[in-house]
Amino acid sequence: MQQRVREFFDRYYSRLVALLERCGVPRSAPPLLVLGVLSATTSVVIASTLFISHRTAGDAGPLAIEPAAAGPAGTEVVNAERAQVLSMTMVTRNRWAAGWSDCTTSPNCRYAAVLDRDGARATSPEWPVPYATLQDGTEAIAVAPPREGTLTGDTSMMFRMTYDGPVLTRLRYRMPTSTFATGEILTDQIVPGRIVVVNPAESSVRMLDTRGTRSPVCDTSGRCWMLTGVGRTDILWTDDGGKTWRSQSLDSHNQLGRLAVSPDGKTLVTTSVVVGDSGQAVAKMRISKDRGATWTDVAHPPQSLNTPPLAFDDGTALMLGGRLNDRPRLYRVRDAAADLDRGYPGDLADLSGDEHLMYGFEVPKRRTTEVVLSTDEGATWTKFAPR
Question: How far is CA 58 from the centre of its chain?
Answer without folding.
Answer: 21
